Amino acid sequence: MKDHHDIEDVFHNTILKVHEKIGQLRQDDYFETWVTSIFINECRAIYRKKNRQVAECPPETADERPIEDRLELMENLDQLDSHHKEAIILKYLQGYSQQEIADIVNVPVGTVKSRLYRGLSTLRKLMEGGEGNEL
Question: Would you state the pLDDT for residue 104?
Fold first, then answer.
């Protein structure tokens, strides 16, 4: 999410859904994972909606430059497949364990491990200037 309006929409929709569906939460221990799962699904929904609109609108040319290293990392991260990018963000930027990621995205832990390994390998190649387009 690069647009602050989209981020606001995601938070708003997440809070509404959590409030509406709190009765469906089976165990209080999994509240954070459950909310994160709703949050990710809301991000995906807005991302899909934006991708449908891309064909209609020209790309934005915002020239906002954060710290150079972070910019390079984020640019390279954007080149990854969405599954690999999602796993890396949840693991290394959000701090979730592999099991928690598996629960959030509804896949086996082995799939999470594979996505992390392949995503990091490709990201490493991209950061070194190699061609990481094997995905």
Answer: 86
Residues 78 and 135 in one domain: yes
Q: Which structural domain range is residue 97 located in?
A: 65-135
Q: What is the pLDDT of residue 51?
A: 61
Closest CA to 39 of 83, 109, 86: 86
Runs of H (alpha helix) within 55-107: 68-78, 82-88, 98-105
- Give pTM, 2 decimals: 0.51
Q: Where are the beta strands (DSSP E) in the chain?
A: none
**Which amino acid is located at 14 in the chain?**
T
Q: Is 55 helix (H, G, I), strand (E, B) or coil?
A: coil
Place of tokens 């934006």: 50
**Under 8 Å CB-to-CB from 38, ≥6 apart: which residues?**
14, 17, 18, 21
CA dist 135 and 133 (Å) reads 6
Indicate whether 86 and 23 sit together in one domain: no
If the chain, 135 residues long, is cut into consecutive pieces of 10 residues, what is the mean pLDDT of each piece?
76 88 85 87 78 49 51 79 88 85 90 92 81 47
CATH number at residue 84: 1.10.10.10
